[in-house]
Every structure is written in C-alpha cells, then in structure tokens.
Amino acid sequence: MSKVSNAQAELREMDELSARTSPIHRLHPLTKLLVTLAYLFTVVSYPKYSFSALFVMVLYPVLTFQLSGIPVRLCFHKLRVMLALVCAVGIFNPFFDRTPMLVVGGLTVTGGVISMATLVLKGVFALMASFLLIAATPIDRLCAALRQLHVPGILVTLLLLTYRYVSLMLRQVSIMTDAYALRAPGQKGVHISAWGSFLGQLLLRSIDRGSELYQSMELRGFCGEFHYADGAGYGAGDLAYTLCWTALFLAARLVNLPRLLGNLFV
Questions:
Q1: Closest CA to 83 of 109, 28, 120, 41
Q2: CA dist., res. 198 & res. 208, Å (int)
Q3: φ/ψ (deg, to 5) at 98
C-alpha cells in the first residue's frame, strides 16, 4: 500500500473512531473541549524542574483512553512523527544546564536532564490529550463547540473545510500517482524531473475541484458559515464532568501529590 493510501486509511480510521459509542463519545463536545483546554493549560504551566509533580497528570489520558475504548498504542502509532519531534526538542538541555539536582545510586542527575524529561513529558501528555479530543469527537461537532466559545466563524469554517478537503486532495494525488506509475512501469515513485509538472497539475486539479465544491455549497444555501445540526444539550452530567476534572487539575498543579504521598509513607 502506498503512502497516499495509508494517509487516506488513517483519515477514515479517525472518522470511524469519532463515530464510536462510549461514555466519552456521548459527552457534549463543548465538555471535551473545555476539559482538554484546561488540561493543556495545566500541563504547560508546570515549571521545568517539576518532573515528579507533572507525572500525576498521566491519570487523565489513561482513564480517558480506557473509558473511550480507544487503544493507547493507536495514539502513539499515529503521532509517531510528532512524538519524535517532541522528544528531540529538549535534547540539548543536559549540555547547557549542568547544575546538580539530586544523586540516584551514586549517579548525579543534573537540572538539564530533569528539564529535558519534563519537557518531553509535557509534549507527550499534550499530544495524547489532543488526540483523544479529535478521536472521540466528530469534526463537525467539534467545530460547533468552537463556535459556542465564540471562535471567529471564518476560522472554524476554514478548519472544517481543510479537514474535509484533505481527503479529496489525497484522492487526487492517488489518481495522479497511479496514472504516472502506468506510464513509467518499474519506476519507484515520481522522478525528480517530473516533480514540477506533477505539482502544477495537482494545483490545477485542486483549484478546479475547489471551485466545483464551492459552487455546490452555494447551491445548497452556504452563505459564509455552516449551520451545525443541534445535538444533545449541555446537561448536568457534562457540567459535573468539566468541574470535577478542572478541580483535579487545579489540585494537582497546586499540590505536589507524589511528594506528599512520599512523605506520608517514608
């Protein structure tokens, strides 16, 4: 299977994940969006040496993965490239920050090592929470939640159309790649000499396809903003879910729970 086909399959898989039925999927999209934003702000706010205090924030993604029925391995597989970049962000910290922080088994751990581990943990947690939001919420309902937060309509419409148009563009790339392979049998990929014409044809096809899509949208009454279908209202359960997780995030940020538990047992 080609890379384009793999990308198309992954997009379909994300749509299938968001269409599942679970306690997390049944939550109001605004609830999941608010909890995810609260989680991201809390994770990012930790100081660079707060590795032990930050580690307790793993409870939210782990519990949410279990309740939603989404495999954790699927998250790490789909975000493998982003995870590699996140792990590489703080790779030079140990070379610049050599301040001794603690000694473990005769080995001195510097501040650079702790700050690097904290930065990597922040990135991993942020990617996991973002993946959960996308995988458990259909894109149209997520956009409706953004509009409820008064995000400008043009930005929300752009996000929705970009997400929907990616699959169409990948389909055009797949058609052009198959046509090129039929004209150049035995050749692996598109030769560098054909890259210019290939991208030019893709651009022209994209413009034509975009014009056809916009005309069909206008014929169906599109006037600059989508009118999203009304789903279930924001109930008491959604409010309780939002408040409980927000309170737990705040408690974890203000109190170093691992250190507190360590002091109780040691």
A1: 120
A2: 15
A3: -105, 20
In this structure, what DSSP letter does residue 228 have?
P
Task: State the CB neighbour count (10 A cutoff) for residue 245.
Answer: 20
Both tokens assigned to 239: 């409010």
d(CA 68, CA 259): 30
The number of C-alpha atoms within 13 Å of 19 and in the hemisphere containing its C-beta is 6
- Where would I find the beta strands (DSSP E) of 53-156? 100-104, 107-110
Write down the residue that tokens 């974890």 correspond to: 252
In tens, the pLDDT along 37-57 reads 999 999 999 888 888 888 888
DSSP structure class, residue 187:
-
Picking from 238, 237, 233, the residue whose alpha carbon sits closest to that of residue 31 is 238
